[in-house]
Amino acid sequence: MDDRPAQGRPDGRPDLTEAGMTDHSPKILRVLWGEMHVEGLGRSKDVKVYPGGARAWDWAETGTAHYPGIQPADVQELLDHGARVIVFGVGLLERLRVRPETLRLLDERGVTTHVAATPEAVARYNELAGAEAVGGLFHSTC
User: Fold this and answer.
1) What is the maximum alpha-carbon separation in the chain?
2) Which has fewest Cβ within 10 Å: 108, 132, 139, 140?
3) Whole-angstrom distance, CA of residue 111 vs CA of residue 65
């Protein structure tokens, strides 16, 4: 396992695709308070994972906050990478919300969703990672 902080793309966002990932969704190896370890990526506080890669998830990109929660713009990248199942890890204390319009968008596109506390969500995501085109958004604190 690589314990170095996640490196990134030219725009500064960590991304597994540069490390030669192809179409499988990388496993999440460990979850600690404020830190997640992802196969091939290393450490990051919050992560986006999808078929072919992963990167740090910076909520500021879309203006996401605990409430009202994960927005449609947050999942677009996962859809663009072919995710047909999306798992939301909403924090260890389940403080992060998923906006109803986000779930509605995914339902309209036929994408299966799972929402759970991050440890349970990671377990579900890892079960699916080898068999499905799965993506996820995972929050590692509250």
Assistant:
1) 39
2) 108
3) 23
